[in-house]
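Section 3.1 - Work completed
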Amino acid sequence: MEFKLGRASAENHYRLRTFETVGSTNAEAMAAARAGDPGACWFVSAHQTQGRGRRGSHWVTPVGNMAASLLVVVPNHPATAATLGFVAGLALDEALRSVAPDLMLRIGLDGVEGVGPAGRRDRLRLKWPNDVLLDGAKLAGILLEAEPIPGDRLAVVIGIGVNVVAAPEGLPYPATALAELGVGIDAARVFEALSDAWASVARVWNDGRGFKAVRRLWLDRAAGLGETVAVRIGEQVFSGVFETIDDEGRLVIRSPDGLVRTIAAGEVHFGTVATSRQ
């Protein structure tokens, strides 16, 4: 499979390193940062054998799925760098909409399955903090890793995994893949669109100065906004209505007793699972 940068990405001087098979694209990117790579470089493969998810979980990337990591080097401000996860979510959302527009909306009979005229509902949603959902099932995951480097800079690796041909089995949550829904595109096409979408959204982010605009765009596509959610943090579970994300990207929920809680990291559950955890 031949991966290539999109035109806008190449024009913005991003670089690309490809692998037929790789242990971890995130690991390759961070190793490059330690060796002095200046950033703006993508590391991508259609087969990853040692991928990682959040909280150290194993991220499965069988042949044909997409594993891509982008190395960026930014000022050493961890809170600002953390908002790059929302840039990645928006970029991937834009990329999927461009290559598979039929996935964007579901048409329901008399509006039963959707909202608005003709019962249209957006099928692609962004789950806080770093997942992309399709029809409520996980289609893609995003993992940020960061290390300080000389010059008071921070090397940030944004890992993005997309289930193109197959979704992992045996997970505690539903997962799906593009091929399972009849979308006949490959990982190279998804990556090309992603590289261009990243260049566009990153300009809006503007080294963190434009996060308010990114936040607004992300909330427009957020899963569960205004609904009851449950957030697990270690052994504790907090339930409440998902009200917004704040200016640092933290989740803001309001509990039934009116208490507002701001959460920096946690595992979010929706629907009946959230209700049962109250």
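Second construct:
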Amino acid sequence: MKKKQRVSIKDISTELGISITTISFIINKKAKNRISDEVIKKVEDYIKKVGYKPNTSAQTLRTGKTKTIVFMAEDISDPFFSAVAKEMEEIAYKNGYKMIYCSTENDKERASELISLFQDRQVDAFIITPPENFQQEIQELIAQKNEVVMLFDRRYTTTDHSYVILNNFNGAKTAAEKLIASGCLNVAYVGLASDFSCMSERLEGYKDAIKNHQSQPISLLLPFKDVKSKAGRTQFKNLLDQHKNIDGILFATNGLAINGLKGLKELNKKIPDELAVITFDDRDLFELHSPSISVLSQPVPALATELIKGTLQLLKGKNGPNETFQKILPGKLITRDSCNLGVYD
């Protein structure tokens, strides 16, 4: 089958008798107040008719921009990250940008290889949920000043950089306080053993909430590899066996909560009669679970909006060459049956 010949701007110019410069202005949306509406419509109608597609390689060579943003999530299949990705894609598209998604699986080597790959493809910006022990690599990426770098879901306190995150401390504190208000006397925290800022801030928020309520914190910090595994579930059940007085649990992630709920079912623990439960990050299954599970929900649309807004501002240089974009957004506690109150926010 013979390949269809690509239509060029020169071809359009010859066919319509309109200068290449004028057509270029119209294609690149720079014709307003420069070219008549009649000419704009004539060119746009013809472009649509012949199916003209801009030469992206030429545009990249000319402008140094590919109009592409990469979102490197911990796990793009996780409902939280995929929901944020979907929201970002819509906003980016409306602003003339395309998005690429990938997962780091919390692996430093994999993350470094992906960054190198996308740099070779000359992407304009990275939005990254960095894996553990990745601060030096992020610092080096920022220092190169080749791409805009925005961190999501976690940040570094010793490096000046752009980020959009949840107010993790307040969220965990609010959730733990709700468990206490539900009548819990011994609230436990189940989180990740990691250097992620979100995890340390959630743990500190929990500790602050219970400091005047129970004699000491009760916590289980699992390695990332055990979050969804039988080994992680065994460690969780061991925690309950060692602390038989636990009557409330705050899970730091939805993955931990799902595995924990499986463990509670295996132990025949009744929610909320024996244990009240709250988890970070809402999912449909938490509402459908019997009893329904209370959550500290992250504001997905707002997070996505701020991520793209901040990235575009930095791409356009609106914040200055050395400026950053930093946002901390509040979560929302949604109280369901697992808190023993039967009150819905």
